Amino acid sequence: MTAGQPLRTDPPSQQRRHAPPALHPAVVPSYPPPESDNDESWVWSQIKAEARRDADAEPALASFLYATVLSHPSLDRSLSFHLANKLCSSTLLSTLLYDLFVGSLAAHPTIRAAAVADLLAVRSRDPACAGFSHCLLNYKGFLAVQAHRVAHVLWAQNRRALALALQSRVAEVFAVDIHPAAAIGKGILLDHATGVVIGETAVVGDNVSILHHVTLGGTGKAVGDRHPKIGDGVLIGAGATILGNVLIGAGAKIGAGSVVLIDVPPRSTAVGNPARLIGGKKGDDMPGESMDHTSFIQQWSDYTI
Amino acid sequence: MTAGQPLRTDPPSQQRRHAPPALHPAVVPSYPPPESDNDESWVWSQIKAEARRDADAEPALASFLYATVLSHPSLDRSLSFHLANKLCSSTLLSTLLYDLFVGSLAAHPTIRAAAVADLLAVRSRDPACAGFSHCLLNYKGFLAVQAHRVAHVLWAQNRRALALALQSRVAEVFAVDIHPAAAIGKGILLDHATGVVIGETAVVGDNVSILHHVTLGGTGKAVGDRHPKIGDGVLIGAGATILGNVLIGAGAKIGAGSVVLIDVPPRSTAVGNPARLIGGKKGDDMPGESMDHTSFIQQWSDYTI
Amino acid sequence: MTAGQPLRTDPPSQQRRHAPPALHPAVVPSYPPPESDNDESWVWSQIKAEARRDADAEPALASFLYATVLSHPSLDRSLSFHLANKLCSSTLLSTLLYDLFVGSLAAHPTIRAAAVADLLAVRSRDPACAGFSHCLLNYKGFLAVQAHRVAHVLWAQNRRALALALQSRVAEVFAVDIHPAAAIGKGILLDHATGVVIGETAVVGDNVSILHHVTLGGTGKAVGDRHPKIGDGVLIGAGATILGNVLIGAGAKIGAGSVVLIDVPPRSTAVGNPARLIGGKKGDDMPGESMDHTSFIQQWSDYTI
Amino acid sequence: MTAGQPLRTDPPSQQRRHAPPALHPAVVPSYPPPESDNDESWVWSQIKAEARRDADAEPALASFLYATVLSHPSLDRSLSFHLANKLCSSTLLSTLLYDLFVGSLAAHPTIRAAAVADLLAVRSRDPACAGFSHCLLNYKGFLAVQAHRVAHVLWAQNRRALALALQSRVAEVFAVDIHPAAAIGKGILLDHATGVVIGETAVVGDNVSILHHVTLGGTGKAVGDRHPKIGDGVLIGAGATILGNVLIGAGAKIGAGSVVLIDVPPRSTAVGNPARLIGGKKGDDMPGESMDHTSFIQQWSDYTI
Amino acid sequence: MTAGQPLRTDPPSQQRRHAPPALHPAVVPSYPPPESDNDESWVWSQIKAEARRDADAEPALASFLYATVLSHPSLDRSLSFHLANKLCSSTLLSTLLYDLFVGSLAAHPTIRAAAVADLLAVRSRDPACAGFSHCLLNYKGFLAVQAHRVAHVLWAQNRRALALALQSRVAEVFAVDIHPAAAIGKGILLDHATGVVIGETAVVGDNVSILHHVTLGGTGKAVGDRHPKIGDGVLIGAGATILGNVLIGAGAKIGAGSVVLIDVPPRSTAVGNPARLIGGKKGDDMPGESMDHTSFIQQWSDYTI
Amino acid sequence: MTAGQPLRTDPPSQQRRHAPPALHPAVVPSYPPPESDNDESWVWSQIKAEARRDADAEPALASFLYATVLSHPSLDRSLSFHLANKLCSSTLLSTLLYDLFVGSLAAHPTIRAAAVADLLAVRSRDPACAGFSHCLLNYKGFLAVQAHRVAHVLWAQNRRALALALQSRVAEVFAVDIHPAAAIGKGILLDHATGVVIGETAVVGDNVSILHHVTLGGTGKAVGDRHPKIGDGVLIGAGATILGNVLIGAGAKIGAGSVVLIDVPPRSTAVGNPARLIGGKKGDDMPGESMDHTSFIQQWSDYTI
Fold first, then answer.
1. Does domain F32-175 fall into CATH 3.40.630.30?
2. Which fold has domain F182-305?
3. pLDDT at residue D25 is higher than 60
4. How far apart are CA F136 and CA F116, in angstroms?
5. Nearest residue, CB atoms, C222 vs list A65, A127, A272
6. Does any CB of chain E come closer than 8 Å to the CB of residue C84?
7. What are phi and psi of E213, to 5 degrees?
8. Angle value at C-alpha F116, between F112 and F121, nearest 5 degrees
9. Where are the alpha helices (DSSP H) in chain A?
10. Which CATH superfamily is E29-175 part of?
């Protein structure tokens, strides 16, 4: 995690189990605005170039690509349009959602910067990703996270009913259920994404990769700070369930199908049901970025993430 | 289970593995009609008050809240409207579904009473629940269960094609797949709900809490009574898989990620893959109601539900 | 696997870990065209008879049944209509998708034949299946596989942007995420189907049964051939996670909730997290067809698929 | 006009130019409820028989016919469904309108009786009418009048905003603009109907036939009773414009394209721009019922209605 | 009229008032199929070029242009798509209509040829027409006539319920009401088109131009052949009403707002309410093609068409 | 006309028949921006007060009123939302249109000012107008004119394809066909509006009232300046047809059903088919504002507007 995120990088053992999740502004992820808009400009130009190439090659998709990408002057307009048309319903009209997304993305450049970071992350980490436009248009995990960021801002502004309505639509349309109060960093990959559940007081650092069916859940009826805290660069395998206010240290790996109720130290690996720790310090490699699922197999012969 | 449900409380070992799932009327859940409509009136007045408060505070949501809640004279009309608009498709129009739900809820007061019991259950058990209206409008587990109750009545009336069509829409829209023949009690919490699968001959008691990705499945090709029977007050953790005509006794807890193929005695806890029993009688506490995921951790150091 | 599928039956240990997934035509599943169209004619006549019976018995469903089945001259028209109306969105119109499906099914009789084989498989294997029309109209796993077959053809024709858009819609609408490049055999049952994920270089043989929440995933950032190869007649239980370029031999069984990172020999059973092998050769029975989840329980007392 | 409509049959010269259009209950058309429901039952049985015949003969239309007619238990349900689906918009949902129509038709049997009278009138007067179901489903004039009757009741109940919203939808969808306060009798044929405009204080008697582009308009800015009063059995030709609080006597004919600003005596004919009277008493024939456009041609050689 | 249309060119005074409108195949317009498809190919290539130019210049419209024109392989596919999406409703789905239009245009090349002739006619006659694509996409008169041609074929095939349903949708969506039995030639311009009504036994020749609010109506209750017969090259001004089985000779002009109940000789002009003849033979000019509204003004000082 | 509109007030007899309709910027109506935004603020506050009153009184309409009015921060947002949802289609999405309207109204304050002037005009002139919100929400003439103003700006910006697409949607949805090049003043009332047609080179002054079925048409094939010029304060009765480049002087009245091909001097009245002039100078009264249809009746006994 970056220095700009003291809440999450302060010694977790001292604070995270005490305070209820006070919604002071710091809960809004603190990732800095894009340094020079260069990344955003470059990514947007790539997206348009890809969409133009695909529209030329595939007439059946051209209308879709013009509607979602090529008719828009900027990435945030394109994203707002796409989300509004995905998440609208007969009682929550697309124009209303479009207004909400355009306004939120304009007022919060950090959301735009995080979306760009996510696009860069997916592109570099997922070998099945065919381009930035593929991610923008087709990855329901990417779209769910962007909608969550808007819901998170609404929650911090105490517009909770609207934030919860947005969460609900994301849960229905993308099968991704992230509580608006949860704080999510940037450079996030939700791969496949179906069934991901992230609870109210969960915190997810930067450059984290989360596979489908992953739960960052609470431990029942307790109120207050009751969900996991995921450090930077963590990789969480498909179907892993992490419950309670535990800390998954930066650079840790959680094996697929694991059930984790304990703190996992940085750069270590937890696997199994119940999860136990295997391996240990492994250099500077960050698995959330390298997506290295396999290097520890030698240590634990019959397992994987 | 209550005294009113003899089918499910008779010694399970004697009957449940024999009879095919005869669809005599008793399969329709036997929860009594609301004693005096007091609960329903009170919950509905709360829902309207919450919706009015939110509509005043959030103009962007007011249209949605008037359409779904504030324009309706009663809870069953509001629920019917909301379900019809959620579940309709281009070939299954909202007006048709609305008619079906209004008619079913009017003819079967037990469905209305169960919906009220579910709302009370969610409100008291889920710390993330922001109000009755939040549950009514946004919890896809709640909505899926109400639609299932209507499908269950249709199934009992031998209107199976319509019941199956309804199941299919619920499975697509909410990602919750409950066979119309399955008997579900009242006071149910399906939290997050994505991926829940409940099979044809499953029976679920009252005051049960089921997390997402839970399967109450069969054991393959066998016909007849082949799915789990879940007692009153049971708590089933995220991702748990219970297979076959086994009995999970009243007040039992099933750990997250567990794979259960055996009977679990009342008030005991099963965890792991394959699941084994830990802990035992623990007083009168019903985990499905208390949502106590953690008290047994001392007994089994590295595990949770 | 049949003799017609050399790619998948050649000694897997020699080739599957080396070559990147070259998209030569052989990746298009090689199931033969229907021998005499007899199966297709017979299944279609059954579907129409069922739909007519249901339309007569249930006026509320008649409009739906005429729109989806009874107004169509053939199974492929009915399927194309149904898929187009399920998968369309505000930016991907139903008429465009209908054209795409009608054209693809006309040009590729093997897709039609595989759909018929799937219908026969579901009907014979799933005791909850109420008829062919039930499967055609209501099984999101069935519909997802048919849409995948069209996406797979598009991928092989290098129309990748359209193939990925189709995958994305299937992932959103049915919560089934199958990469267009994955090769899927015929006679497939995706039961319940929510959350199934099948990766880019996965190959699935004929007569395979896959329950919900099953992942055939990769092992991270590696490019090239990195997903499982599933032999003919395999049965994969709910929530199982199979990762990496491993071979699940013909007739093998994978237990529910298992996490598999190793090759599983033909007709053997793997269970647990991490999965270990139990049992062994068991005659000619193919569990993917018999759906026998229980016969090995004697060998492994507290487990199941 | 019948004896039951004193407001309209009292000497018009004495009252109609004075009183502002007081909205006492008598403005609600006074046509009696159906004597024995026989007409309604018979017409409904005919409609169903026609729809069943057409559904059998034309599979492409069967879904439409089941949705609009054959799935409904009664004429008023069928009509409510059809109107709701025609008049709904993205901000005025079909379920809301359906509720409104079902409720209004149930509370006001005179509206149902008038609809039946209209169906009988169209069937007997329009040689292009292919059956009752043809009128019910396809005549926008018929549908506009039925929606107006509901708007008229709402207006009389002082629910003016809703009445005006309904008028607006009818004007957009059917291009028929009838002010909710206008009183329309029964046995009405609006043939083709495009462009018909009927003002606030207009009164239309029973058994009137009105062709398209007909205006019953006011004379500008004046408030109060300022629109035409049309007697029973009147026939108004295409494009005729009748302006001001004039009385068109029972059984009169107004020629096509006429511009009428004067009273027209009973059973006489007015033609031309400006209209002048031709012909006179012509026996008991009521042109609004006989649709006799031609008998006066001998009197006025080069003209017609 | 051409030699290929004997029904309409036989001495009208002898036959047109006797025979009821027998629906033998000759009622299907007899315009020949395109001589070499050259016109169709050329017009289609022009439409695509225009659409491509506009899509490049106007990103906001590009999605629309790709969906309606540029993604289609041929004019009849583009037209079928556009009509299906215009005329569909919640009970008459676009895919069903698309199928109907594609099938009808494929089976009846004369409809395609007539559409091409209409496009050429509009382009050459209407100074406000900005191009072929403008007409194809935006002229509701053009679209209404094409849909009518399909309804006319259905009527001739005795598929009357479907033909009438199509007429009804055209009347609602385009405010153009053409009875399916009416025979319409080719090279037709319906300019502005709102409110056009053409009755059951009307016949319209080739190269006719009809402005908005024009009625070709019957004279009341009479059955049988009761609507106007319009010769080739006729021009009918806005708001003109022509009633009864009269013959408007080839090359005649009908003034705006006229009410015509008499035969009008070829190449003569009728104006006024009631209409009287002015002018006479005027050379070979065909006003339906030249759109000459003004040359007769010298003859009748204060009038126009 | 005001001094700010020289194009239209220059001696018309000298120029209007010569120049082709050069589209220099002056064609964009020159009405001044609102003097102090006071009118707009006041009208908007009235609209919100009316909508709030109606939402409180009529729960069935509250959702509609919140969606269209009460959730918006300004009149131009409300109008943009309402128009976008009215005019959208399956190939022209509401979000795209919303963007277009919001952007155009922001960039062109004169359009906003003209909309306010129209609202004030309708409110003061139409006795059937129940309030500003009634006009904003329900008057299709008002909505058509506002959409036209946006199309007119697009036309002037040479974005002709988009302008024509907008015209086409307005013509379909509201049955009002105004060419984007036509210049329309402010303070306009299009009452009932069905069937209004206004041609390419027409110019309409300020404070003009136009009833339904009015045509401002050309005279055929001629290119160039060929449509009527309507002075300030003109009143045009229902069904009137004005053809050719004639000048209707300020304060003139055109009778209902008239066919006008001649210049009409200021403050005079033209009636009949063909129209002739009756009456003459009548003081300072402007009929387009006073809606006085009746004062000239004494002069012409059997006629009206």
1. no
2. UDP N-Acetylglucosamine Acyltransferase; domain 1 (2.160.10)
3. no
4. 10
5. A127
6. yes
7. 65, 15
8. 145
9. 6-9, 12-15, 38-57, 59-65, 75-87, 94-107, 109-125, 132-138, 140-156, 160-174, 287-290
10. serine acetyltransferase, domain 1 (1.10.3130.10)
**F93–C93 C-beta distance less than 8 A:** no
Per-residue model confidence as pLDDT tens digits over D128-175: 888 999 999 999 999 999 999 999 999 999 999 999 999 999 999 999
Q: What is the pLDDT of residues D43-53, one digit of tens each?
A: 999 999 999 99
Question: Could you tell me if B93 lies within 8 Å of chain E, comparing CB atoms?
Answer: yes
Contacting partners of chain E (3+ CB pairs under 8 A): A, B, C, D, F
Kindly give, in sequence order, each residue whose CB lies less than 8 Å from that of residue D222, ignoring residues fewer than 6 positions away.
F127, F294
Q: CA F87, CA F94: separation in Å to the nearest integer?
A: 8
CA angle at D258 for the pair F242 and E296, rounded to the nearest 5°: 45
Q: Which among C214, C162, C219, C208 has a CA at the least distance from the CA of C183?
A: C208
Superfamily name and number for D21-175: serine acetyltransferase, domain 1 (1.10.3130.10)
Say whether residue D60 is in contact with chain E using an 8 A CB cutoff.
yes
Of B29-38, B251-260, D208-217, the one with minimum mean pLDDT is B29-38
What is the CATH T-level fold of the domain B11-176, as seen in this structure?
serine acetyltransferase, domain 1 (1.10.3130)
Partner residue opposite F292 with nearest CB, options D160, D179, D221: D221
Per CATH, domain C16-176 is 1.10.3130.10:
yes
Q: Is D95 on the interface with F (CB under 8 A)?
A: no
Q: Give span(s): CATH 1.10.3130.10, chain C.
A: 16-176
- CATH 2.160.10.10, chain D: domain bounds: 196-305
Counting every residue written for chain D, the total comes to: 305
* Fold of domain B196-305: UDP N-Acetylglucosamine Acyltransferase; domain 1 (2.160.10)
Question: What architecture is the A10-175 domain classified under in CATH?
Answer: Orthogonal Bundle (1.10)
From chain E, the residues in CB contact with F92 under 8 A are 64
Distance from CA of E7 to the nearest CA of F (A): 30
Contact E222 D127 (CB under 8 A): yes
Spell out the per-residue pLDDT of chain E, length 305, in tens. 333 333 333 333 333 333 333 333 333 344 444 555 678 999 999 999 999 999 999 999 999 999 999 999 999 999 999 999 999 999 999 999 999 999 999 999 999 999 999 999 999 888 888 899 999 999 999 999 999 999 999 999 999 999 999 999 999 999 999 999 999 999 999 999 999 999 999 999 999 999 999 999 997 656 789 999 999 999 999 999 999 999 999 999 999 999 999 999 999 999 999 999 986 555 556 777 767 654 444 343 333 34
Provide CATH 1.10.3130.10 ranges for chain B.
11-176
Question: Chain D contacts of E92, Cβ < 8 Å?
Answer: 64
d(CA F32, CA F58): 38
Task: Tally E–F CB contacts below 8 A.
Answer: 143
In chain A, ranges of CATH 1.10.3130.10 domains: 10-175
ipTM of the complex: 0.85
**Amino acid identity of E298?**
Q
DSSP H or E stretch at residue F60: helix F59-65
- Token code pair at residue B221: 């090709």
B71 contact residues in D (CB cutoff 8 A): 96
All residues of chain E having their beta carbon less than 8 Å from the beta carbon of residue D256 are: 215, 217, 241, 243, 259
Distance from CA of D155 to the nearest CA of E (A): 26
Q: Which residues of B touch C88 (CB under 8 A)?
A: 90
- Cβ within 8 Å of B, A 223-242: 223, 226, 239, 241
Question: What DSSP string describes E108-157?
Answer: -HHHHHHHHHHHHHHHHH-TT---HHHHHHH-HHHHHHHHHHHHHHHHHT
B269's tokens: 């806890």
Cβ separation C162–A125 shorter than 8 A: no
Give the predicted TM-score (pTM) of the model.
0.88
A93 to D93: CB separation less than 8 angstroms, yes or no: no
